[in-house]
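INFO  loader      accepted 1 record
INFO  loader      residues=232
INFO  predictor   begin
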Amino acid sequence: MMKLLNWFKKEKNFLFASIILGTLITGIILQYSKAYSETIQTGIADNVIRFHVIANSDSEEDQELKKEVRDAILNEMSPILSESSSIEVSRELLIENMDKMKAIAEDVVAQWGKNYSVKVTLGPAVFPTKQYGDIVLPTGEYEALRVSIGKGEGKNWWCVMFPPLCFVDVTHGVVPEETKKDLRGVLNEEEFKIVTQARYEEEVPVKVKLKIVEWWQERKYDKKHQLVKKEL
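INFO  predictor   done
INFO  writer      dumping tokens
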């Protein structure tokens, strides 16, 4: 015990210096990872418009109604948005057609014999990490077209309207390469690797980077917002 105390007295300056240095290094790493997370998530969010449909409730009927509203709106908007090559044009088209989308949703609701109200908005919304086929969008705030049916308390459904991931078949879990080209066209190389999880190369390092982005964004929004977690 005495030897240990003597060693501590002799080396205490070194130990204190090591603790301080370790704390500084940890702080630098945390600040760097936080800045990296903000840069990546913001870069992705600035180039994406999501589509979000919220059911009246979790009843089987309301969930099926939600799907029919979704399909009706996508069928109408697919040819309209197909000519858009920028998020600005897509945003303008969505704004121009909001009344039409609301009317379409209301028609579907009426056909089902319901008197639910329908609310259609375009604006910021916070989403948890979401995988769509083999594309992953990290937690964060995104611009979204939101269609809320009735009380809007049921499981929700979402995809991406720009670039148009809503309009492709991902039943086999893979987004077509042509659609990925659209995504590559609006994201930088690092952002593209993150959302595709770099299936081409460097897969493990990129997945670690994705986890860093997820962790910081979840900490940020868990404090400020309630994430949209109910999903179908």
